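Predict the holo structure. Ligand: NAP.
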Amino acid sequence: MAQILVTGASGFIALHCIEQLLGQGHEVRGTVRSLSREAELKQALTKAGRDTKNFSLFEADLTKPEGWDEAVKGCDYVLHVASPFILGVPKHEDDLIKPAVSGVEYVISAAIKHKVSRVVVTSSGASITDTHDGKTHFTEDDWTDVNHPKTTAYYKSKTLAEMKAWELINAQTGKAKTELSVINPTVVLGPTLTEDIGTSNDFIRQIIVGKVPAAANLHFGFVDVRDVASAHIEAMTNKKAAGERFIVSANELWLIELCTILNQAGYKKSPTRKMPNWLVKLFGLLDAPTKQISQLLDAERYTPADKAKAVLGWQARDLNDSILETAAQLQAFETAKKA
Ligand code: NAP
């Protein structure tokens, strides 16, 4: 049994990591910005069948130095999952970049200080795919170009935070060094353990409730949250995972393909027509999030998880099943809201 800290315990991915770690018999700590969420999180874990006697919470914010030392001290491993994540456009790009980078600094510095064996950082496909050089097939050797004018604030925040993590780990000089593994998931969907559906599932919710009139020509990889959590846990102890980053992705889909899967499963508000690029660009003149999307039109992003499969023995569940399971849960939430 190991002592493990998972940062951002209230988050969609982090809570699945905690649920799986408790299921394996570990002692798990989580960080939250406010301990007022303790009852909600414990209730969600209990509902998922986990005993919470080995689960405790610490208060810490990615923008402040307080709390990280206490949370990390005594841990064998740290899963650093917390980072600001929004679908839209922040007022200023630093609203995303600064907490993402300072959070990595606080967490990894505390891990090195307290001799944690390994930190697993949740980075993203966003740190890999925006090379803006015409490439369509990506591997762990690729890095998003943070200086390119089309790279969004979120993509910059994830790339700069991951770079900072590697910089801090590689700067260690002592004999016993803290190791780093990085998980780079593509768009994450799947069932949520709380009633907070998570940022990325909101994308599916908007499609099924009819907020997406037609499918823009966008292409992304997708992966189930339970498989993202299991990749973190395997990367935590697998000897060959030290010093490596891993793309985790089940499959890529064009948005029209995702919408069609949902429509054919009975979600009739999901569009079956494509939106022409010129129309997306026109809407983009009036709306900042649509402008951001319009910069991604037609860009193919193939992100095979070959390395995670070979090194971690990782497998992804069927993407169609994940999409439909997600939609069913979101639809149930919508129905409950109206009742
Ligand atoms: P999420 O549900 O929005 O979780 C984000 C977590 O970060 C929340 O626990 C949030 O805490 C915490 N957080 C944000 N700002 C913070 C701050 N200033 N101080 C402390 N905690 C802060 O999103 P998620 O999907 O689980 O994402 C988790 C990680 O996976 C992020 O690093 C994200 O970039 C990465 N990722 C996500 C996807 C995806 O599609 N979901 C794909 C690739 C990578 P509060 O509850 O207090 O807000």
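The two ends are 44 Å apart (CA to CA). The pocket of NAP is lined by residues 8, 10-14, 33, 61-63, 81-85, 99, 122, 124, 158, 185, 187-188, 198-200 (CB under 6 Å).
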